[in-house]
Amino acid sequence: DSGVTQTPKHLITATGQRVTLRCSPRSGDLSVYWYQQSLDQGLQFLIQYYNGEERAKGNILERFSAQQFPDLHSELNLSSLELGDSALYFCASSSWTRNNEQFFGPGTRLTVL
Amino acid sequence: TQLLEQSPQFLSIQEGENLTVYCNSSSVFSSLQWYRQEPGEGPVLLVTVVTGGEVKKLKRLTFQFGDARKDSSLHITAAQPGDTGLYLCAGVDDYKLSFGAGTTVTVRA
To answer: Residue A42: which of B41, B42, B102 has the nearest Cβ?
Structure first.
């Protein structure tokens, strides 16, 4: 158990819909990262938050957004969903050390029909 | 385009055999991490290598960081079915991680 929790575990929705994925980092970690993992793209970095502020952006679509709340939990919002958005979405947290060792949650499997 | 290239993409071996997975890049990293991911779960950090030429051992797993800090290898001795999984390398630069596409390792009993 990494100490990072994600909900829901599975999510099935239709094209055009909007969903919210939730993540709680390990106790004491201020940094939260979101990743998308699909079969053809591998593990892709989406966005990072540190203590409530956006710190880095990766390959995140404009239809996607995220935020980190004062209690440090984070949410990833995906809107106008397309079939190609079906993937595993992982949240990771770290304590912002030089080596940036990250601890991953169990992921949310999103299926867009 | 992957910043880090991992090879081979797939590896299937018999229990007791040895295997090596490679992670190569044209970029220099401040450190490099290896993760293992099992189906339906998140990646789990195995090791971080920091110094060029560094070798770290974790039971039957040996990790090596290239002298130029651009490449790394993971060697498993006497593989067991429990070693089955997706092995991912990740380069660290300015606190950012770049992941390779991974090597899927299957160890047959």
So the answer is: B102
Q: What is the largest CA-CA distance in chain A?
A: 41
Q: Is A66 helix (H, G, I), strand (E, B) or coil?
A: strand
Tens digit of each residue's pLDDT (9 = 90 or more) over A20-44: 999 999 999 999 999 999 987 788 9
State the sign of the Cα–Cα–Cα–Cα dihedral A112, B4, B8, B13: negative
Which candidate, A45, A44, A28, A36, places its Cα nearest to that of A96? A28
* pLDDT, tens digit (0-9, with 9 covering 90-100), for A90-101: 999 998 676 778
**Sequence-ordered strand ranges (E) for chain A:** 5-7, 10-13, 19-24, 31-38, 42-50, 53-57, 64-68, 74-78, 87-94, 103-104, 108-112
Cα separation, A90 vs A68, in Å, equals 15
Q: Sort A23 into a burial class: Cβ within 10 Å, 0-12 / 13-18 / 19+.
A: buried
B8-24: average pLDDT: 96
Q: Which residue has the higher pLDDT, B55 or B39?
A: B55
Rounded-to-integer distance, Cα B31 and Cα B63, Å: 12
- Chains A, B: CB contacts within 8 A come to 55
What angle is formed at CA A32 by the lines to CA A103 and CA A78, rounded to 5 degrees? Answer: 115
Residue pair B74/B87 in contact (Cβ under 8 Å)? The answer is: yes
Cβ(A72)–Cβ(A25) under 8 Å?
A: yes
Q: Do B42 and A106 touch (CB under 8 A)?
A: yes
Which residues in chain B have Cβ-Cβ distances shorter than 8 Å to A107?
40-42
Q: What pLDDT is attached to residue A51?
A: 93
